[in-house]
User: Fold this.
Amino acid sequence: MRILTALILSALAMTLLSAAPTYAQMPAMNMMPDVPSKSPEEKEQEAIRDKAYKDSLKKIPDAKTSSDPWGTVRSNDAPKTAAPAKPKTKTGSNVQRSQ
Assistant:
């Protein structure tokens, strides 16, 4: 049991000793830079820009016509129902055999 504990402690010590130089070589990186808050003037300018953008979107006319390129080819008075189906026989064909 003592040998197992000694092996675990030595493996742990070697891991820590080998990780320390690696950690020291990493550059200090700030992933979230300090972003200064906007001044009241900047907020007002942004609000003016947003309002102008929304107003320009309202000026775009709605599409009144259909964008269906085949709309003029189709007829509006197409038949709604199909022809009545003929009753099928047991074999699945419509031809009856004479006996």
Summary: The chain has a mean pLDDT of 77.
